[in-house]
Amino acid sequence: MSTHTFQIGDYTCHSLVDFTRVRSLRHNFPKINPAELTNEIEALALDLTVDTEIPLHGSVLLVDTGEKKILIDAGLSTAAGGHLVQSLANLDLTPEDIDLVVVTHGDGDHIGGLGNYAKAKIVMPTNSYTLWTQDTDAMVEDFIKLFREVQPEEELAATAIGRAKYADVLKQLGDRVVLVEFGEEIAPGISMFEASGHRRDHAGVQIISQGESLMHIADAWRHPIQLKRPDFYCLFDSDPETLATTMNSLLEKAAQSDAVVFGAHFPFPAIIKIAAENGSYQWIDL
Ligand SMILES: [Zn+2]
After folding, report:
1. Residue extents of the structural domains in the chain
2. Ligand 1 centroid vs 60 CA: distance in angstroms?
């Protein structure tokens, strides 16, 4: 599976493909009127329609600080079709080489592969751990509520049972879990930031080295049409209003800081920059 290597200051970063699916914009944004999607496609002069099947990647970021190898998210489980371990093998690495896995949120394509990293410490925000272990039912409901209108009851029930298991996984990790506050350093220049909306526990990761920076926005947004329309939310976004507010503040910060922006579901290699122009934002592929 593909890998792409780049540098943020002294830190060597690798974008690693975990999975690739295809999905049309209509399928990605089922709650948004297709005519509105078409307007934005035309405004950006994109060569597609609402029904064009486009690749949707799941990518994971590996940061090598020289001292530590830090994986941001664990990808899908291998049984569910995750290829992250193969992508690591392309870099001559095995899961045992990973020191820390930082968890941005408790969705299957981000935590499904946690079991592969038996030697790593698992880093996550205190609020995420607390939400999942003390309020599991509310977190499961948060996860499935937008699916209620489009999925049959049995599928929803199976998803809910699968999600609830995450709370048990967290408890079983015991002292391998390292809880951090937003802004607290995980390694020099590396910290998590609050980015609620996609999920209640959704967070991002900031990496700064030698004046260069990267913002890992995880699943805060996935497609260029959302830059002008942060109100365009997908089936997986639990709280659209909070998400739009979060997106606006992340976009402003990304444009001001000239940071490399890593998105878990951007087209591979999953890195872009954001430019501010006449009150709106532009997606710049790297
Ligand atoms: Zn995701």
Report:
1. 3-279
2. 10
